[in-house]
């Protein structure tokens, strides 16, 4: 009977090693996935920290923001952060809570990159009614907001 007991213990030992190897493999894969996710999230947080923009258009001069003749909104936005920003993607414009598409982005000064300290001109065709309006510009997780008022013609 002692040989049966030894075989049983050997089988149980092999089964325990197999289960332990499976658990270790699963844990290693999960830790690797978690580490990769944290690296990706950390990179996006760093981008957000280095990104800072401000709308520098004059809200006291609504004619400089909205041209009622052409139905065109123009906003000046300055890169006050520490990194160069892309102008071909990642810039969202919301007017009165609506995402506006077809925004033309032009770096003032003729360069192709939106470097720290430089200003871009955002222009979009959009008809606005007289009254108070809110513009929000979002870039890489940072946002700037401005209220402006359009008077009756």
Automatic annotation (TrEMBL):
One of its GO terms (molecular function) is structural molecule activity. GO terms for biological process: archaeal or bacterial-type flagellum-dependent cell motility. Coiled coil: none annotated. PANTHER family: ARCHAEAL FLAGELLA-RELATED PROTEIN F, ARCHAEAL FLAGELLA-RELATED PROTEIN F-RELATED. InterPro entries: Flagellin_arc-type, Ig-like_fold. It holds the Pfam family Flagellin_arch-type. It comes from the Archaea. This is Flagellar protein G.
């Amino acid at each position: 009977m002692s040989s049966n007991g030894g075989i049983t213990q050997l089988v149980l030992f092999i089964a325990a090693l197999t289960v332990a190897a499976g658990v270790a493999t699963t844990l290693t894969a999960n830790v690797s996935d978690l580490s990769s996710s944290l690296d990706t999230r950390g990179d996006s947080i760093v981008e957000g920290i280095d990104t800072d923009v401000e709308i520098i258009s004059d809200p006291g001069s609504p004619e400089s923001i909205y041209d009622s003749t052409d139905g065109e909104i123009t906003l000046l936005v300055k890169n006050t952060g520490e990194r160069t920003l892309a102008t071909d993607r990642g810039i969202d414009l919301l007017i009165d809570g609506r995402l506006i598409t077809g925004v033309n982005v032009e770096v003032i000064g003729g360069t192709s990159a939106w470097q720290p300290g430089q200003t871009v001109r955002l222009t979009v065709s959009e008809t606005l009614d007289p009254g108070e309006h809110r513009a929000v510009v979002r870039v890489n997780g940072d946002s700037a907001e401005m209220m402006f008022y359009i008077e009756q013609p």
